[in-house]
Amino acid sequence: MAQAAARVLIVEDTPTQAEVARALLRDLGHEIRLAETGADALEQGLGWQPDAILMDLELPDFSGFEAMRRLRAAGVEAAIIVVTAHGSVNHAVEAMREGAVDFIVKPFAKTRLTVTLQNALEKRALASELRAVKAQLNRDRFFGFIGASPTMQAVYRTIESVAASKANVFITGESGSGKELAADAVHRASPRRAKPFIALNCGAIPRDLLESEIFGHVKGAFTGATETRPGAARLADGGTLFLDEIGDMPIDMQVKLLRFVQTGTFQPVGASKAEKVDVRIVSATNRDPWAEVEAGRFREDLYYRLYVVPLELPPLRDRGDDVLLIARQFLGTFAREEGKRFRGFTREAEQALAGYSWPGNVRQLQNAIRNIAVLHDGERVERAMLPPMLLRSSRVPTPALSASPDPIAADAPPVMPEPGLAPAVLDSAAPQAAPSPEAPPEDPPRAPEAFLSLAEVEKRHILAALDATGQDVPRAAAMLGVNPSTIYRKLQSWRE
């Protein structure tokens, strides 16, 4: 197997000895440089970054041992082979202690030198590969992510692969799984990292303001436009524009976004001419994007423009021990913020954390740990300190409207409204005694006033979905098949 060409630095203060070494290595095709002093060796080691160094121990300014110490301290990872006329066991041991990979004594034959150098270079290449593999396999941190599970390692590799490209990225995953964190990681790992990262939540902006938020507007373009304002597209020039919850974007706005994606040009609201920017677009949604296309809620041509590199984030319940890694990180952070003594979890608490399904994913876990840090204190978090939802043996299912004509039947699960909301009005009719099993009576006709209004049934159904998802509005909306903005409007109206 042919040895690849390498950079070899010969550190030797005797010119004849340096030329002998150079002549012996010339036929191997390596790039050779000479250094006559320890200082010169340091300068070339740092600036040239050789793959191997043949180091003489007797140098005019300081010893080869000292040169090795300084090179290692400076981060030079070259394979160092000590070459000296003073061969002894003590020298060999000291050379290895200072980081040398081998030791040869002058005078040396060509075969001895070439084989030693080849072995040193092969060891260095193997060590480099092992470090890279170990780093890939054992990473539990990646930009803002915390997690060492195989599913997250695959996410990290995808981000690294796509980062250097200009291709648009489409991130999917459940609400709270870290889609904005993934978009930020794509940006920070890319050549655009020094330019802006602009994030925009398409589901949180009123539809009549969305165009202005993305493309900006000029003064007087509409009522309230008292000054010219750049949009996210202009602000992200040279960097990355992250469009979160893009599935909530109205169809008419999707047409304008498609033109922007195709041409890189846009026209601010009220402007008379177009502008051009260099922007990479990363999109995200907690829905199935192709299902949205089939349902007619998302343009197919825009889908193909944005869905170039898909990146799917796994839910927290599929990430194994990552739950505990993230929980410990959050606990340390919130304990410092709240001035608490927490240093970890008891075994029982960790089992409860690992056994919960986390429908709200990392965001829900973050809120749960913050709740613990605010309300409790101690050396370790005990199981009794966990929020009640983590201790339930089973979660409350969402009731189906068709399951019973009476939405408050005795076997229906209780609905826990969001804090601050008025509780659902309960039917005031007295409960009926259980019928005798010997003579079951016929169901009496239901009085008209026993029926709830459709508005009340809708309210109960929405609140039940929110309770089942840990008050996660986007996830509840997905369960109910409505837009999150619909639920936000309902909640606001119930508060008024």
TrEMBL record:
Compositionally biased residues, Low complexity: 399-413
Source organism superkingdom: Bacteria
Domain Sigma-54 factor interaction: 145-374
PTM annotation (4-aspartylphosphate): residues: D56
Native organism: Falsiroseomonas oleicola
Region: Disordered, residue numbers: 397-423
Keyword DNA-binding belongs to the record: yes
Pfam families noted in UniProt: AAA_lid_14, HTH_8, Response_reg, Sigma54_activat
Protein name: Sigma-54-dependent Fis family transcriptional regulator
Keywords: Activator, ATP-binding, DNA-binding, Nucleotide-binding, Phosphoprotein, Transcription, Transcription regulation, Two-component regulatory system
Residues of the Response regulatory domain: 7-121
Database matches in CDD domains: AAA (cd00009)
